[in-house]
Amino acid sequence: MIVEMKNIRKHFEGLEVLKDISFGVDSGEVVSIIGPSGSGKSTLLRCATFLETIDGGEIIYMGKRAAHTDESGRAVYVHHRELRQFRAYCGLVFQQFNLFPHYNVLQNLIDAPIEVQHRNRDEAEQTAMELLKKMGIADKAKAYPYQLSGGQQQRVAIARALAMKPEILFFDEPTSALDPELTGEVLKVIRQLAEEKMTMVVVTHEMSFAKAVSNRVIFMADGLIVEHGDPREVFENPHEDRTRQFLRVFDR
Amino acid sequence: MTLSTMLSTMAAGMLRTCGIFALTLIGSLPLGMVIALLRKSKFAPVRFLVSIYIAVIRGTPLMLQLLVWYFGPFYLFEWSIRGWRFPALILGFILNYAAYFAEIYRGGIESMPVGQYEAAEVLGYTRTQTFMRIILPQVVKRIMPSVTNEVITLVKDTSLAFTLAYQEVFSLAKQISASQTSFMPFVIAGVFYFIANYAVAFAMARIEKALDYYR
Amino acid sequence: MKRMIAILLTGSAVLTLTACAAPASAPAAAPAAQETAPAAEAPQETAEAEEAAETEEAAPADSGETFVFKHGFDLDYPPYSYIDDSGKVGGFDVEMAQAVCEYYGWQYEAVPFNWDAKDAELNAGSCDCIWSGFTVNGREDDYLWSKPYSDNTQMIMVNKNSGIETLADLAGKIVGVQTSTSAYDLLNDEEGQAELCKTFASLEVYETYTIAFNDLKAGAIDAIAIDVTSGNYLMSGQEDYGYLDEALGSEQYAIGFRKDDTELRDKIDAALDALVADGTYDTIGQKYPEIYDFLCLGK
Asked: What's the gap in Å between the CA of B148 and the closest CA on chain A?
């Protein structure tokens, strides 16, 4: 297991966003999380990548516990220095890309490896250029984010996350901010990563993509995992009414 | 008094004006950042004290502040204030401008989208790294127009040094004008301020242009 | 984060210290202090040295160390204290103060101040006296005074062709005056000329007489209320202007000291007597024809 989330609970100002969520991801797996907006998908990713702290439950990376619930029922995290190591296991691709506008593409890719991981500049640049080649944007290495299309920016963002050599990559609706004609180029890159057995969790509204690429699909609604299983099973023969209802909207 | 005597007498004042200007900037630009960061401190009493300081500085005239810094040590503690004139002047200017710069910095820092912090956090940057490498460079670009305004105001505010009888160019213009019953010193001072501000505006435009490589 | 703040704080502290150190040379660069080297050493003096200097005041001439006489004045007040044609500090009061210092062997230190802050400067000890065409009348109890050394009269200056000939003619006219002058005080004093002032169309208050005089030339105002000495200085070489025969008021100039500084006051008074006796007072006075007639010591 790369990551295990057990009995995760999270609330914002009285509102229960995550109610007892448990799931795990194995090495090389691609897991899609689908569900209506407000179901807690993004919050789950943000908890998994330590942008949010959980109220209760357990987070385990590579067999090591990053957070657990103590006797009093509160979530306890490891010391923040240790937590930095856990952060290194996971990467996150945002809906809004969040590239650093004052850095060019290459700098976006090498700054963290050099400054955070203290890697050698030549090695970091070489890794970065290989990633850009893979993303089909090697010619944009010296361009600034504002000079790129949304699809190109998101591919840079994916490359930036990969440059840190994470064990697992999370995607938070990676194509939602893109014009429809640009989603294809980003999905293609993710599909390519899946073929290379990159471990990934993708929150998405692209149902056909989820069906074609994932090993497993999780359907979430109202802070709960409603259905969880093989993509074909979930999409073609859902057990739950809630799932059927949701998929009907997309099938029209 | 010949025009050349007038010019050379006033040149000394121009140098002093430039001195106030430079020392104030050197002191207040970094100090403003410290104050802006203290204002966002996790420790509530610090935040409170800093907000009081900013409110007092912005709520009172600089002229009054200069008098307080100069005469305060004597009236409060009976300390001798010999030789304290120029330090008090610079202290007053730095603390005043630092408060204004702090507010500009704060506005710039708060205008940064939260996504920049989150992207940095996920990539494992420490808070200091996030601030120095990701946030600060972008804040600098965002606040440049406001800083330019403030710097130009400072050029003109240096004339308030007359409050402490420091003979910068405007005090000298007044005094020479009185002794020569002539407007010429004011014309010279006016031309000086205009050229100084033109130079400042030019320099700031160059900096803004240099930061124009991204959006 | 903490380390960064520490670095910034240290940086600012260093800058502040540098700024504090700078004045050591700054006052010396001021034209006001050009002829007084000691100003440069002032900041290094310790508190003890300061106290010692104050003790000296009690017996300035007897002390082994040289007493530094800090002459407080306004550089905006020709011909008593101003920037002369060569760009140096000069004027009748400045020359007299220097003559007193020479008489006792004191060190002269020029302390030009902002006139509005004169009391704070005197009380805080940054100067030893206010000696700058300083009017006694109305301030008799506020300072310890030397002997009056100059008479002064407040007059009304007009364009000779204006048709204004008496104070009564000023009714309905616009009159200009400089702020913080005795002419200004007189026009606002109920026991002075406040009644007359009420007959004016308006009283325009100026930062300096130079600007008021320009307005008079331009016809923006009809008259200027001014000390005769300042007025003479302003009008020199200008044929078209003159005073009304009737004076607005009269007063005397003297040197103002801190109220407990009898020792120094007496010293100065004695020196003034000596300078009158040896003719220095008259010699210096002759350099300032616009006020010479009003000098009153020894008359």
From this structure: 21
